[in-house]
Amino acid sequence: MNTASERVPPRPRQRNARGQGAKLTEDIVAGALALIERSGSDEAVTLRAVAREVGISAPSIYPHFADRDAIVMAVVLRVFDELAGAIEQGTASARQDPVERLVAGCEAYVGYGLAHPARYGVLFSRSHGMPQDYCAPVPLGPEGQPVLEFGAEAFALLVRGIEDCAEAGASASTDVVADSTAVWVALHGAVTLRTSLPGFPWPEPGTFVRHLVLSLARITGHPDGG
């Protein structure tokens, strides 16, 4: 049985000019993101809901996305791009010292997650993948780094940051991938736990993230490191 909200007709939308199909694709992704932001979950993303948000009929979505899951995956890719962009901006804002660049990038990761909890949450939601996909082994590249289907750029930035520190003699890391994974786990935990338990007496984010990164990235010979 349709709810009252599902019976609301879509807002009139001006038809895209010929050759502007890509614009509608972007509008559909933006509409799904808006639903996620308002509801806090990708469960709000349905073909009807997205169509209403964009101002089109639900069948108009099919030339652009096969189903609801395809829309959510496009959102995931968009948000991972935003996250990687935030990390790059944070890194670029730091001085040339590789340790400061690593810390700044990690602070940007946490800052993005805390500023956009709904968007960040959709990155790791099991609802956009089959259980067997999560259990399948992640392939490794020629240098032993995991070949991620999603979020590869963000993880690669972290790996590169620790590699730069090790090459500069500022990190004692002998397994950059393992240490990058440890830092990622800590950053992810910082975002998800702060979001889930806002009333806990958390330390100031910048200081807390710096402490985590310097320790887990095995930073040595740095004023704040070991």
Features:
226 residues; mainly alpha; 9 helices
Write structural notes for this entry.
It is a single chain. With 226 residues, this protein is mainly alpha-helical. 58% of the residues lie in helices and 0% in strands. It contains nine helices and no strands. The protein has helices at 21-39, 47-54, 68-93, 98-115, 117-123, 131-135, 152-167, 176-196, 205-216. Helix 1 crosses helix 3 (68-93). The chain starts with 20 loop residues before the first helix and ends in a 10-residue tail after the last helix. Mean pLDDT is 85; it is low at 1-19.
- In whole angstroms, the N-to-C terminal distance is 63 Å
What's the order of the H and E elements? HHHHHHHHH
- Please state the structural category: mainly alpha
Please tell me how large the radius of gyration is.
21 Å
Characterize this entry briefly:
The chain is mainly alpha-helical and 226 residues long.
Task: Describe the secondary structure blueprint for this structure.
Blueprint: H1 21-39, H2 47-54, H3 68-93, H4 98-115, H5 117-123, H6 131-135, H7 152-167, H8 176-196, H9 205-216
